[in-house]
Amino acid sequence: MGVLERHWIMGWIIFLFLLPIIHGWGKDGHYATCKIAENFLTGEALAAVKALLPAEAEGDLAAVCSWADEIRYKAHYRWSSTLHYADTPDFRCNYNYCRDCHDTVGRKDRCVTGAINNYTMQLMSEHDDSGLYAVSYNLTEALMFLSHFIGDVHQPLHVGFLGDEGGNSITVRWYRRKTNLHHVWDNMIIESALKTFYDKDLTAMIQAIQSNITDAFVDEASQENCKSTVCPDPYASESIKLACKFAYRNATPGITLGGLKIIGSSCYAYDYFYSRWPVVESRLAKGGVRLATLLNRIFSEHKSIAEE
Ligand SMILES: [Zn+2]
Fold it and tell me: What does the subunit comment say (predicted)?
């Protein structure tokens, strides 16, 4: 074997070794939300979604559900970075659109629930014959943004306190790793659940969550007192309440969350992971069911007629 071939093979080995990092942990929550949603789409909505997806998605919505995170720091899309979250005033465990939905310089509607409203309107405009929406939107991007932001608004710390940037400035340890509270909720709890319960198999984790979704859960998740196509404010209200009750609770700066506490000859698992994983599971399931309900509404042929 020549030197060139050896280099080529080594290159491939390194590339394959890096693949799991490229498709890394940060994507798992969004992937799970969109995979769960796919199962609840009507045939009509699924066809409309597939028609809008970019070619690289190969017909799979879940494959592009982290697109909005991948582009958020690129110069061309930097405007979108404030659309992933909303902040409440410190220690206020409720969400108020007028008070909380703005960007860092106070421009209204630039937050996660404002973005959900906006991209829903853009996708609905396709069915509108009134001519009011003469602007032509990029509906592929609208679908990818909307699917991502429905996931984000269900992550409790994406509706957290302003002073600690939704837990980003609270340094903690997750087992032995130094990280921050926001990252624990974005990635680490899911990562630990995958290792602890599913032998690192994301598909198995998603199937397990799906098998726990009952008709009653779907009814409750999709039951809304909503007069327009989407009402995301209650999702944000749920999130800040869960952030107060579960995410911030016992998460003082510098604390070790996860791991084992050894007292004398006994080991005790810190209960943060075991008590919070069911919350994360439920939020992934709710996000998935609600995303499907919304896409079914948007792409229902008769929706705009029924609303008139
Ligand atoms: Zn995001």
Answer: Monomer.
What is the pTM (predicted TM-score) of this model? 0.86
Q: Is the pLDDT of residue 16 over 60?
A: no
- 152 C-alpha vs ligand 1 centroid, how far in Å? 5
Ligand 1 centroid–CA 148 distance in Å is 6
Query: In 3D, which of 243, 252, 241, 251 has the Cα closest to residue 272?
Result: 251
- Name the residue among 25, 258, 292 with its Cα closest to residue 147: 292
Strands 159-161 and 86-88, bridge-based pairing = parallel
Across the range 101-128, mean pLDDT stands at 92
Host H or E run for residue 3: helix 3-22
Q: How far is the CA of 239 from the centre of ligand 1 (A)?
A: 14
Query: Is residue 127 within 8 Å of 45, Cβ to Cβ?
Result: no
Ligand 1 centroid distance, CA of 84 (Å): 5
Contact 303, 44 (CB under 8 A): no
